[in-house]
Amino acid sequence: MGIYAELVGNVLASPTMKQVNTASGARRIVELRVMSASYRRLDDGSLEQRDGRTFPVDVTIWNERLTERVLQHIRTGASVVVRGDFYVSPWINRDNEPDAGAHIDAESISLNLVRIDQVVYRPRQMRESDAPAQNEGASEPAGPPDGEAEESTSGDEPGAPPDHAGSDAATSGQPAGRRSRRAARATAE
């Protein structure tokens, strides 16, 4: 039985993919390092980092579907929330002294919204079971499947559509993300 943990912190180095051999064959994994963040609120309302509770944690992602998303969206400096099995790896360092490092085999990893400026949802992919009856469907995608979203920080995502909130293609009653997609679609036509 392991320790299931949740880690909140900042990515120290962009994720890297590598291939490892397992008993069931070769697998692609992603590794990254996250600096844990432990803060306390002071009387004046400001935050102070707690001494001795902030340390680097090595994170490994074994889920191949998740590895692709991590490589696409997470980079150095991103604030993330990692959940998974936590363990400590002891070793002997160069000075012949015992040392140890913290590690999480991640079950899930997500961007912490504290540093997110924009979220762009991808269009819903039509499935055979979702196909509308003859001429009954709407021309606008219904939204992201299963709550999935593509997150982007302002200016960091290459190819992220600009916010066309003032565009003629936008209608005033719709969320900004929907206006951006509609405006992008109108300019493409």
Automatic annotation (TrEMBL):
Pfam families according to UniProt: SSB (PF00436)
DNA-binding is among the record's keywords: yes
GO MF entry, a single one: single-stranded DNA binding
Alphabetized UniProt keyword annotations: DNA-binding
Compositional bias segments (type: Basic residues): 178-189
Region Disordered, annotated ranges: 126-189
InterPro entries noted in UniProt: NA-bd_OB-fold (IPR012340), Primosome_PriB/ssb (IPR000424)
Keyword match DNA-binding: yes
Protein name: Single-stranded DNA-binding protein
Naturally occurring in which organism (per UniProt): Trinickia symbiotica
